[in-house]
Design a protein that fits this description.
CATH topology of the largest domain: Rossmann fold
Structural class: alpha/beta
CATH class of the largest domain: Alpha Beta
Number of helices: 14
Radius of gyration: 25 Å
Number of strands: 22
Shape: elongated
Strand order of the largest sheet: 13-12-9-14-17-18-20-21
Bound molecules: cytidine-5'-triphosphate
Length: 399
């Protein structure tokens, strides 16, 4: 699997940098083209010459970062990479990557690459468990980066703790897994909606709902990682925007309808994970409604467009059904009424699934009425399972 693949090996300045020599050696022996990129700090722990001799290739270090052609070369390197591996990754590098800082070669490559990025942190356990480091790791994971957990054991400080770089075999296994990741949605155009719409009452108030957008974001990231070209129509979501995805921000159901109608024109699939409001105030007050005006306030609500029902076309159509009772029956009804290929039903009365949870318990129902009931899983895993089904249908020539 590694044969003839370009693996960019990023080495940063930690005591475990010497172990990267073994990793570079084993990857080279397996037939990979190993392009080493070292931070300046890394060169204090292990010499570029050692790595050049092992990989038989020029080693990139920040010491040469003056001529502009080098930066061009790094874009080329980012594009050629089948995978980027950073081992060891210091807390400092993780923090830089999390904020997108690209003031060194490694940062530039990571920012520019579309290849999977695998990070093996190695550091003092206090630094590893520090909430800032953990927050950075969580943010990078959300962007699709893979992390290899450091191992527990004796650290350079002499103390024992969690922070050791795992052995070469473990790192290679993670690289192989990333390389083997399905690209089964390559060049498919998928439109995903996420979040909940807000329908204004006056300049300061709105009617909204509890959708967090997590399921739609997980779907966008999973589809992107499987090679799809993703357009994400997001309504009032506060999550970090996924990289490599076209994001269109909307507020109301009408705006969402307009965005979706435009985006589906060339799409292969539409996945409506958003919760558009069903009603909107008939009149939006131009000025803030004052409470002195009356003891009670009556709002007249009119229906919003039912996006999924109204936006039809030659693409796969996947809906969601957030239900609190008669889950399967209600979902099947929506599948037929909205002319869907699949509907994903979930029980919103449970706290571990549905609104704002990181996990979900879904039932995928197809046009034949067959229901696939899945156990509790992360929203990312649930997204993968939904995309497996989308892929299955697309493979049969669409609808
Ligand atoms: N949906 C839509 N436009 C709306 C409301 C819902 O496109 N105005 C989509 C949702 O994104 C979801 C599916 O329709 O994929 C079902 O949404 P849900 O709220 O469960 O169903 P409704 O049709 O709104 O029915 P009800 O609220 O009465 O259960």
């Amino acid at each position: 699997m590694l044969k003839n693949k370009t693996i960019v090996l990023g080495i940063t300045g930690g005591i475990a940098a010497y172990k990267a020599v073994d990793l570079a050696s084993k990857l080279t022996q397996a037939g990979a083209r190993v392009e080493v990129v070292m931070t300046e700090a890394a060169t204090k722990f292990v010499t570029p010459l050692t790595l050049r001799n092992i990989t038989h290739r020029q080693v990139v270090t920040d010491m040469y970062e003056t001529a502009s052609e080098w930066s061009e070369e790094h874009i080329a390197l980012a594009e050629a990479a089948a995978a980027v591996v950073i081992a060891p990754a210091t807390a400092n590098t993780i923090a830089r990557l999390a904020t997108g800082i690209a003031d060194n070669m490694l940062g530039t490559v990571v920012l520019a690459t579309k290849a999977p990025v695998i990070i093996a942190p190695a550091m003092n356990d206090a630094m590893y468990t520090n909430s800032v480091t953990q927050k950075n790791i969580t943010a990078l994971k959300a962007r699709g980066f893979t992390f290899i957990e450091p191992e527990y054991g004796r650290l350079a400080s002499g103390k024992t703790g969690k922070g050791r770089l795992p052995d070469t075999a473990t790192i290679i296994k993670a690289i192989e897994k990333a390389l083997g990741q399905k690209q089964d949605l390559k060049n498919k155009r998928i439109v995903v909606t996420a979040g909940g719409t807000r329908e204004p009452i006056d300049p300061v108030r709105h009617i909204g709902n509890r959708s967090s957008g997590k399921m739609g974001y997980a779907l966008s990231e999973a589809a992107r990682d499987r090679g799809a070209k993703v357009t994400l129509v997001a309504a009032n979501v506060t999550l970090e925007e996924p990289s490599g995805v076209d994001v269109i921000k909307v507020k109301t159901a009408s705006e969402m309808k307009r965005a979706v109608s435009g985006a589906v024109k060339k799409a292969d699939a539409l996945i409506m994970a958003a919760a558009p409001a069903d009603y909107q105030p008939e009149i939006i007050a131009e000025a803030k409604i004052k409470k002195e005006a009356a003891q009670t306030l009556t709002l007249k609500l009119v229906k919003t467009p039912d996006i999924l029902r109204e936006v039809q076309g030659d693409f796969l159509r996947v809906g969601f059904a957030a239900e609190s009772e008669n889950i399967i029956a209600n979902a099947k009804k929506k599948l037929i009424e909205k002319r869907l290929d699949l509907i994903v039903a979930n029980d919103i009365t449970k706290t571990d699934s549905g609104f704002d949870a990181d996990t979900n318990r879904i039932i995928i129902i197809d046009k034949k009425g067959k229901a696939e009931k899945l156990p509790l899983m992360s929203k990312r895993e649930a997204a993968e399972r939904i995309l497996d089904r989308v892929r299955g249908l697309a493979g049969q020539g669409g609808r």
